[in-house]
Amino acid sequence: MSHENTEYRPYLEPKGFYAWFWTVDHKRIGLMYLYAILFFFLLAGLCALGVRAELFYPKTQFVDHHGYNVLFTLHGTMMVFLFIVPGIPATLGNFLLPLMIGAKDVAFPRLNILSFWVYLLGAAVVVFSLIGPPGSAWLDTGWTFYTPYSIDSSTGVIPVTLGAFILGFASILTGMNFIVTIHKMRAPGMTWHRMPLFVWSLYSSSLIQVLATPVVAITLGLLIMERMLGIGFFDAGLGGDPILFENMFWFYSHPVVYIMILPAMGVVAEILPVFAKKPIFGYRAIAYSSLAIALVSFFVWGHHLFVSGMSEWSRWIFSLLTFAVAIPTAIKVFNWIGTLYKGSVLLDSPMLYACGFIFLFTIAGLTGLPLATLATDVHLHDTYFVVAHFHYTMQGGTVVALVGGLHFWWPKMYGRMYNETIAKVGFWTLFVGFNATFIPQFVMGYQGMPRRYADYLGEFHDMHFLSSVGSMVNGLAYFLIFGNLIWAVYKGKRAAANPYNSLSLEWQTPSPPPLTNFDEVPTVTDWTYGYGSKQA
């Protein structure tokens, strides 16, 4: 299956804008998802910078308290529903899954493009609803839409939750497509224990997408019915229970964390053995730990409600289950480190992102332990400690892995190489800026600084100032990183079909791959991670 890159094949046939918009080619769909989510990443990131700019100093700087609430609502809603949830699965997953298993496309190509159209529809509804018509009050509930405020708020709660409801269908369609593709479209010889670990991670996260997403759709649907029809699901005045909303919301929203992070773990598992030039350590343990994480994730939502008045037995059980999810996660971390041990490590930019992910995600995991502990969670609940922990998981984990994956597979996607020196500078700028942003927030949270406040006591000024400076460096890093990648598309030197000497199937095609991926369906006879004994 090895090919020389004798012909540069950009995605131009059939030609024209509409050929892209109506395509059923999984690679084009993955790229369109990429352009869409990066657009919303930009918008959400600018809102985050606005939040941090307001917090440079105490008192009001640029926006009033309502404006501050609007900014973090815009940031959270777009970042979670429009960027991180589709994130890696819809972009790298769509582009790479058929290539990695030796298929010519996903199982349902038309369903695939439908999922993208549904995503765009939901995104349009969310964005226009967040902004609202001229003169209206912008949404300020936060991305969780917590009752009772979301019931009483005069802002556009109904259209925003409707948009999130629509987005759920795109997630379900993608998950169903991936599950069927992995079960039915694998090339001859591509057994379950020869599958790339990125495919295992997509499979695990797809199960969560299909099983958990309907719950949040029902929850948002009930909220809409309550506001429109006055039915008492969550409103205590109508006989409802606001805590029921929290239970239903987090039953979905905690598993969705693993929709975001499992594919990121898969990306790291693909990068490490290629740049360490040795087999992945503990392949089956990593593969099955993905399924274990997906399973346990459905039973830990209660740790978001430790201070809500649940029974002591419930708190103990949810605490124990939350600690339990750390076991399969730790298995992955130990195996990644085992892969690096005594390897011939090459610190190119994808490897820097993979190692950065291990470091940052380990901090995310370790800082999750105090939040799973009943006594310390009472003190840390709803403080900046939670904000920092969440961002070490989402940005330090998912986003860093996505950027690392883009650097790794960019030559395959576009047939062009980016500037490696700028890529490394971008990584270190991001690494320093990110830690400078959120380490002070751990300190503030431990000291009792509550989150979601537009003002603060003077004693927290130094930490807020440092965090805001770090956020500006963090934002600058992304402009540097993506500027380099965009430059590569137009000016980068041509990439070889397999510049990293990877053994995985996607690297055995031209760069970029042809429309049908493979001239003939390949027959797999070797393990994907046999580095050291066989080189590509």
UniProtKB/TrEMBL annotation:
GO terms for cellular component: membrane. Keywords: Electron transport, Heme, Iron, Membrane, Metal-binding, Respiratory chain, Transmembrane, Transmembrane helix, Transport. It is a multi-pass membrane protein. Residues 14-525 form the Cytochrome oxidase subunit I profile domain. Belongs to the heme-copper respiratory oxidase family. InterPro entries: Cyt_c_oxase-like_su1_dom, Cyt_c_oxase-like_su1_sf, Cyt_C_Oxase_1, Cyt_c_Oxase_su1_BS. It is found in: Membrane. One of its GO terms (biological process) is electron transport coupled proton transport. PANTHER family: CYTOCHROME C OXIDASE SUBUNIT 1. This is Cbb3-type cytochrome c oxidase subunit I. It comes from Sulfidibacter corallicola. Its main location: membrane. The keyword Iron applies. It comes from the Bacteria. GO terms for molecular function: cytochrome-c oxidase activity; heme binding. The chain crosses the membrane at residues 31-51, 71-99, 111-131, 157-180, 200-225, 256-276, 285-304, 316-338, 350-372, 392-410, 422-443, 463-490. The keyword Transmembrane applies.
